Amino acid sequence: MRAIRGSGGIPLLRSALVISHPGHELLIHHWLETSQPTIFVLSAGADDNSALAESVETIYNTHSKIGKCFGVFSDQEIENQLMNHNEAWVLELVETLSDEWMQSEIDLVVGDAAEGVDPIHDFCRLVIDGAVRRLAYRYNHHVANYDFAITHHPNSCSPLQSVQLLQMALNADDWQRKRAAILQHRSMHLEFLQLFQQFGENVFQMEYLRPVIGDSFGWSYNPQRLRTLYSRLDEFGNPSLPRIRFEEHLLPLINLIDEAYPIWNQNQAA
């Protein structure tokens, strides 16, 4: 893999960005400007497609490209497939992404992190990791796999991740363009205001891409965490039962991908 270094030491490679919902691309807006990736969006978000249309404007403004899988599904459709344990649908989605990456000679894949907050976010990470695995297994094509925080602090990472952490500092003009794009994306405006209040605007003047090392879902095997995973508070402040449960709907898909695309071990080679 030949890395060409851009500003901030970020490698300029043939890149793909895979996100669960439109608007997530704004979190790494400057990376879009410098890398101009092909962007894939699993869910269209709002029923009227307004969020998707706003993301299309961001994509064009950053000279990025739109992938074949772009807002094809709604959250409801994805949840229905997960509830019905539609393994064939998941594998087809993995194949579609990996085949397009192979045809486009993608070297770097960036996407949503698995944070245990939103099942659609975590399903997106599952699909990304599956497509990366399939590229290696089916085509012997190995790509760099990175994620970025959606609801957590942008710089949250493990000590092992910090060694290979890619980071980019935005100058005043970079930040103004990013901030303007955020304010113009009305569908995500409230979410970003909450992030600004929680972490401070200055935090988002740095962008971080974290290497995906080993199991993206390592946090998921904590039994106490599993009981409240994806739950929401009801009107009385009590956790409501989530429709999608990690153990029941996502964990079997992780096992499915492990079986379909096992990690090749060169020590087993003849």
Beta-strand percentage?
15-25%
Give the N-terminus to C-terminus distance in angstroms: 25 Å
CATH hierarchy class name: Alpha Beta
Number of helices: 10
CATH architecture call: 3-Layer(aba) Sandwich
Instruction: Give the overall silhouette.
Output: globular
Structural class: alpha/beta
Order of helices and strands: EEEHEHEHHEHEHEHHEHEEH
Helix content: 40-55%
* CATH topology assignment: Rossmann fold
Biggest pleated sheet: 7 strands, mixed
What strand order characterises the main sheet?
Answer: 5-4-3-6-7-9-8
Give average pLDDT, whole number. Answer: 87
- How many individual β-strands? 11
Low-confidence stretches: 1-8, 265-270
What is the number of domains?
1
Q: C-alpha Rg, in Å?
A: 18 Å
How would you characterize the overall build of this protein?
The chain has 270 residues and is α/β, with parallel strands linked by helices. The protein has one domain (4-260): Rossmann fold (3-Layer(aba) Sandwich), CATH 3.40.50. The protein contains ten helices and eleven strands. The protein has helices spanning 29-35, 50-61, 75-83, 87-103, 119-139, 159-163, 172-184, 189-199, 223-228, 246-260, and strands spanning 4-5, 11-12, 15-19, 38-43, 65-73, 108-112, 144-148, 166-169, 206-211, 232-233, 239-240. Strands 5-4-3-6-7-9-8 form a seven-stranded mixed β-sheet, sandwiched between helices. Strands 1-2 form a two-stranded antiparallel ribbon. Strands 10-11 form a two-stranded antiparallel ribbon. Helix 4 crosses helix 5 (119-139) and helix 5 (119-139) packs parallel to helix 10 (246-260). The longest helix is centred in the middle third of the chain and has 21 residues, at 119-139. The protein is globular and about 45 Å long. Residues 1-8 and 265-270 have low confidence and may be disordered.
